[in-house]
Amino acid sequence: MTVRLHRDVSLIRTDDGGVLLDQRSGEYWQLNHTAATALRLLLDGTGEQEVATALVAECQPGEVEPDQALRDVRELADELTAAKLAVRS
Amino acid sequence: MSTQETLFRHDGRAPLRIRLAARLAVAIALGLSRLPPRRIRAVLVAVRGRARPAAHDQVLAARRAVVASSVTCAGKGCLPRSIATALLVRMRGQWPSWRVGARTAPFGAHAWVEAEGRPVGEDANITSFRPLLSVDPRDPA
After folding, report:
1. Chain A: residue nearest B42 by CA?
2. N or C end of chain B, less CB within 10 A?
3. Could A17 and B101 be called an inter-chain contact, meaning their C-beta atoms sit closer than 8 Å?
4. Secondary structure in 3-state letters for B95-135
5. Which residues of B touch A17 (CB under 8 A)?
């Protein structure tokens, strides 16, 4: 299962996160650092489990539980799909 | 400023011509600004055609003419300003790079034009914006 951005959506990375522009509506979506990192990995074809593992590795030991990280990654993918910014295939 | 002196001048009517062209560009740009970004982009790509890349000074002169002829474009209307500037440059057979970008911390979105690889008429803050949408001159194929 991969995630890709809708063709009318553009993404930039910034120093502390990222921004999505939906060219159909003109809406901007701000991503925090974690969400931007997760999205980049998902778009690269990384599986949700591996993305969660990478996010946990970025944090202090014990700061984020692996299960919570996986839920967050799925939630991000769900939100982007629901907003029609991304497509799961 | 009165326009009379321009009307009764006999040596070259460029100032008036440029002002009228700028007004036209602004009028079109104000309409285009209300469209979704992907539509604006499609229109600008069509308008650009095969126009050659613009020189920085030409674009700066166009931007000044646009700002001088529209309160909106002189103020916070960066989108109509950037579109009108590009259209006015196009009327002279050239095309700048048109861009819409954003930054975070603090969040901001902005539209601007570039020529010769650098932003035209922008202040130092422009460096924090990353392009999300661009219409560049066509590569000479």
Report:
1. A23
2. C
3. no
4. ECEEEEEEECCCCEEEEEEEECCEECCCCHHHHHCEEEEEE
5. 104-105
pLDDT for A62: 81
Q: Contacts for A30-35 with beta carbons within 8 Å, 24 or more apart?
A: A30/B104, A30/B107, A34/A58, A34/A72, A35/A76
B31 to chain A, any CB pair closer than 8 A? The answer is: no
Contacts of A21 in chain B (CB under 8 A): 37, 100, 102, 132-133
| Phi and psi torsions of B101, nearest 5° | -145, 175
Determine contact, residues B48/B138, Cβ cutoff 8 Å.
yes
**Coil, helix or strand for B52?**
strand
- The 8-class DSSP code of residue A43 comes to H
The lowest-confidence range among A39-53, A70-84, B7-21 is B7-21
**Cβ separation B130–A13 shorter than 8 A:** yes
User: In chain B, which among 88-107 make CB contacts under 8 A with chain A?
Assistant: 100-105, 107
Of B36, B38, B104, the CB nearest to A19: B104
Which of the residues in chain B have pLDDT under 70? 1-14, 140-141
The token duo for B78 is 């960066």
At residue B32, φ and ψ (nearest 5 deg) are -60, -35
Measure CB to CB from residue A14 to each of B38, B100, B130 and give the nearest one: B130
pTM of the model: 0.88
pLDDT of the residue at A59: 83
CA distance B99 to A22: 15
